[in-house]
Amino acid sequence: MQALEQVQEGQLQGVEDICALSTVSEPALLHAVRLRFARQDIYTRVARILISVNPFCPLPIYRSECLDRFKQAKDSAELAPHIFGTGHDALRGLAQGTKDQAIVISGESGAGKTESAKFLLTYVAECVKGHDADGAHGAHVEERVVQTNPVLESFGNAMTTRNANSSRFGKWLDLRFSQALAMRGCRITSYLLELTRVCGQCEGERGFHIFFQLTQARDEPGLKALNLQAPEAYRYLKNSVLRAPGIDDKQNFSDLRRALHVLGFSEEEQMQAFQILAGILSLGNCEFGEAEDGEELGLVGAEAAARALRVAPERLAQGLRRRKVVTGRDCIETPLRLDQARAARDGLGRVLYGLFDWLIQRMNDGLEMTNGQKPGVLDISGFESFGTNSLEQLLINLSNEELQQQFNEAVFKSEIEDCLKEGIDLGEIRYEDNSDVVALLDGKGGVLDILDEELAMPKATDLSFTNKVLKSQGKHRRLVTPKFYGSATFGIHHYAATVTYTCDGFLEKNADRLPLDTVADLLLSSELPLLQEMGRRLEGGSPLAKGSKLRSATFRFRASLRELMTKIQASETHYVRCIKPNASSVPEESSRRPWCTSSCATAGCWRRYGSGSRASAAGCASRISCCDSAACRCCGPRRRGPPWRPRRRRRRTRRRWRNG
Ligand SMILES: Nc1ncnc2c1ncn2[C@@H]1O[C@H](COP(=O)(O)OP(=O)(O)OP(=O)(O)O)[C@@H](O)[C@H]1O
């Protein structure tokens, strides 16, 4: 018989630091965190780890009075657990030691990672304001670092079914400080921007915010020359959700303009960037007509795209309809099929969105300082498991596995070893060691090595890749083989969940080919200096350039992941674990009754109402609060219980009571 855990007083009261409990167990931790969350104490401390539960509503805990309290505190432990406390600890670590500091923020999509990173940045910037600003960038560097956020959010965030403002890239922010703790600059590294979103999105989602901001602001005097239309007029936007709940595109666009200005982007640079975005939208509207065998496809709409991109229309049209085939010493041009031409058009759209990398490069050029101590903040995409999971999910999940491994080593392994050295018996401490998953994916002869090997095989297909994985790793305890032979799928038992990956398109994505052979020449021929610069990068040092050793997408990703892990391992690491309390992204879900199942009828509103209720659309005024409709079982007058609770069960319950 299993002994029941003893309930402790601290757990019932919701202690601030879980380590204060005499025995720490999973139920005790869960109970304490839940209790604290119910009274809006969203943060709980577990030694160096901060647990943060997303409240999905504004709380008065980030005001300047609160910030000042942390700023003046000697030790963050004097105060209640808070994200500012983590910032305080990192700054104290910097001031005391020689080690760099790293703050790793993890959690699923919508758990609050980006908001936490922003609070941290605000705190750090406020704390170091006024310290000697001996750097070349003067006293305003903190403000400029903070202003990188609106730029990254406009270009790198989008609405998904899980989060209206979801970061579609991972971010490592390296902050640089002088000895006197004056902020000297920063360097941003981005990981795995979800470029496929430029040309298409899943149902209930939309593309990057910037496209909607720009089309909303099209009537502003400076933007009229772009000849932009409403989002409905563009193929890349019209099938998505046009308005993201809680997101004010117009306001965000003016914030973006201000941020670009503070970061030193000239008016001309900004206009060129907007022009490229307009070019991407026009490119998406290009449509191809049918063609006879061996003939070129018809093409409509290339003039508008060419005008926006400032390239010759014939050159663009030719690039989208023909490709070069090299046979021996000869090079002949052949017309593309309809599907190939469409793929080339969308591929070019994605290459043009390389604008994101240019923006980051440009911000880094303005803010980077090579010397100084570095605290880094990592906000990386959380573990992902969708209906269909592809190479992007595999790479994101690999990065989460690596971070989990680093967390295990830093928190469990090293602590246990230290205690054993000191002769302290910790009893049995169980944790899931995930090093075998990391080895299966990233190790020698692992899944990603096999994928790279397939690039060199002329007849390789997604299925041949899958078969090789199943053959060489089939007995690995973390690999799940598909039920039916011949399907290009496999599963992985990750530390967080088991995920099935569909390998269709793995080879193509890994090869990361340029959509047209002439793309670098096309960009170089543009009258826009910014496009010429992007063309030069493609032609020369870019990983996408011909002959580059770094041509495989997974090779590059693994190299950058290794670099990142080395940085984290060399630093003193602070962890923030963000938790999403409910899948509907609403406050206090726990107080809602479980039988609320119908969605609201208002377009763009994801709120759910009581089944069968006639909640009016007018109730949906705010994203955060509930609908307040009297007819809605969520917010209407409370009833004693679900009306359809089966009678028999009630009778049985009564009988049991009587007997008992
Ligand atoms: N501390 C907080 N206080 C109030 N609201 C919050 C807080 N943290 C997050 N939120 C709300 O939750 C939403 C989602 O948070 P956020 O965008 O930070 O999630 P994320 O973990 O970065 O998601 P993704 O991985 O999709 O980018 C925010 O837009 C905000 O409305």
TrEMBL record:
Entry-linked SUPFAM superfamilies: P-loop containing nucleoside triphosphate hydrolases (SSF52540)
GO function term, MF aspect, one: ATP binding
Alphabetically ordered keywords of this record: Actin-binding, ATP-binding, Motor protein, Myosin, Nucleotide-binding
CDD domains according to UniProt: MYSc
Cellular component terms per the entry's GO annotation: cytoplasm; membrane; myosin complex
Residue positions binding ATP: G107, E108, S109, G110, A111, G112, K113, T114
Protein name from the UniProt record: Myosin motor domain-containing protein
Organism: Effrenium voratum
